[in-house]
Amino acid sequence: MGEWNENALLDSLWQKLAEDSRIAPPHIGLVMALLYHHNGANLSDDFHASRKKLMRFSGIRSVTTYHKYLGELVKYGYIRYVPCWHPEQGSKFAFAFD
């Protein structure tokens, strides 16, 4: 995917988040953490990230809160998530651009 398409996808994501009344600051923090940890992969590609790193980056301090907002982002259709309990690998994520 070219740079322009990546920017268009990112713009679309931010616009969708801004217009969604269900989205709260912790959702935005978690999306920012996910964007940071996708490590330069195409936005439409899968990537791995650990809960610990995502919580630290997003400022979420409680595991319960992390899972609440992560679950809502999945439910609202912003991300796809496949949990992994391997401490080095991290769970698999992808942004949902459907």
From TrEMBL:
The name this protein goes by in its record: Transcriptional regulator
